[in-house]
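Lecture 7, part 2: worked example. A protein chain together with calcium ion.
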Amino acid sequence: MSTQNASLPQAAAHTSTGRVRNHNEDAFGYRPEHGIFVVCDGMGGAAGGEVASRIAVDTVLGFFSGEPREGGRELLQQAITQANTAVLDRAEQDPGLYGMGTTLVALLLEPQGALVAHAGDSRCYLFRACQLSRITRDHSLVDEQLRLGTMTQEEAERSPLRSVITRAIGTQQSVTPEVQELAVETGDRFLLCSDGLTREISEEQIAAVLAAEPDLEASARSLVEAATEAGGRDNITCLLVQTP
Ligand code: CA
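Predicted complex, written out as structure tokens:
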């Protein structure tokens, strides 16, 4: 899916189950007219993962679908708190979904800049002037050990703990997303993605695809295809957004 309107951000997304999993537990959604873009990567037994990620995406989009309001940072935090409650409530109603949860990465584009909120290991990157910068740090055990210097990059990549995340939506009564503010320039491209992309291909490969392919729809598809070809061991989701 994609959108085109000169005054609005443009967006396109692509997702794949990959080559190993039976279900796609990733979810994405966006409303360019409200400046909100979301990717979630669900987890939990049975159908739980895909339910949690869908609920979280839809709750955040729904939160921003009314009249525009002031106070982006607080609103984003409220939307994510609402998503957390919605996932918990659903798990309470259906014992088969107990233990489900989801990561979340959300981009809110406002006239005064961008806000990026995340919980877990789904990421946001900014591609500007042919440079790829990672905006989010993973909320994962391995990433924390990397930052503390108690683990090397090589050890991190092989660690059996690498999928253990330290923040998520729907796993605790409350959630504290990390929220960052950024200034934006015309033509900035943001990539929101699940770890099925970043586990399979390097940041150099991601940057090369974005540099070679200006079309959002085509580059979202190329990124997912590259991760699939590299192994496709997990669900892969890429959402690309370009500022007007
Ligand atoms: Ca994943």
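The CA atoms of residues 191 and 240 lie 5 Å apart. The radius of gyration is 17 Å. Keep this in mind for problem set question 3.
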